[in-house]
């Protein structure tokens, strides 16, 4: 990934929580390391970033220094073999919250490319309100096309108005949700509860073993939301290997320091008209690896 006017980075993988290389022999590992260093020299990158669920990289690229960032977690839920069993495992308060949007007249629908405009209507508005550049419409179109039967899109409607949306990916025995949003003015109707419950029910009834709620910072509202479903935190380790420097620049390892300048950028982004935010966001987002 290369940011304009800056040296690039090799990241495994951008926009994902975990990735990293896999080897089944020392010989293949050595070939990988050799080819990686060759590629770094060829495209002139300054670092390699390995996103991993384990605290060690599992291999060593030369004598280059490594800094590990580990203040984020992903939330995992072990699933029973049916949605009925899953629902019974929840406390009465959570079951009541799941029923609320039904009583309020909301409905859940599955969709695909035919519902992408509705999805993007909700997703882009929410991203602007969060002060974050949004992926392009074409990005999501490509996801739906590429993953075929390994992707599902779900939406929650109030009448004809989409009020919540999400996309899940089906990876081996796990259902993971990389993208989800709601329209803030409808949050009092709890559309998020309907959205997530339908995804969880689909995963349980479909024979999947785990539901991956995605990345969060402990203590934040998204962390608490995922924890109420029974999601358990698993630490994420993002290993930054410096290629150009003898010493790794000090990496701020707390969310507060990492986000020191974000508040100003977020405030300004929220003030943009939606059409401007969508147009600029689709150009900027590809340079943001999160």
TrEMBL record:
Organism superkingdom: Bacteria
GO BP annotation list: cell wall organization; peptidoglycan biosynthetic process; regulation of cell shape
PROSITE patterns noted in UniProt: FEMABX (PS51191)
Transmembrane segments: none
Pfam families: Acetyltransf_6
The keyword Acyltransferase is assigned to this record: yes
Similarity comment: Belongs to the FemABX family.
Keyword annotations: Acyltransferase, Cell shape, Cell wall biogenesis/degradation, Peptidoglycan synthesis, Transferase
Protein name listed in UniProt: BioF2-like acetyltransferase domain-containing protein
Organism of this sequence: Candidatus Scalindua japonica
